[in-house]
Write a structure and sequence with these properties.
extended; 4 helices; 143 residues
Amino acid sequence: MKKLIREHIRHQVRKMFEEREYDLRQLSPMAFDALGQDTLGIPPSAIVDVKIVKAPKPIFKCFLENGQTFNLIDNGLYMQADINRILFDLDRDDDVNGAKYEMEKLMQQGKLKTDGEEDASDEEDASDPFEPDSEEPAEEPEA
């Protein structure tokens, strides 16, 4: 009985990994290859979501688990990666190496602050320097 349960658990775990890989395979074949070990080398578990941006060329916006994003652009003949606002042609080895370097930096960055998580020092600095102080001036004595 235990052996049967173990086999079932293994089967279910394998099925979950295959489904996750299939979700990423729904991208264009070139985009899936660009994410794989041969090009950028991103583990599938690091990618939380991929959205297709409507544009003349298919753009895949990839969301990482640390809250960072990057874009893959399918140009038909080759893929481009837009990482940290730098565009890399993934058909050139030197660009692939640069993209891997930038991807490592991107994956090491922390989560971005949301709008509600501003520091108190940011709120104090946000006041307008040309706006008069809220304190009322002292009254002048009458002569």
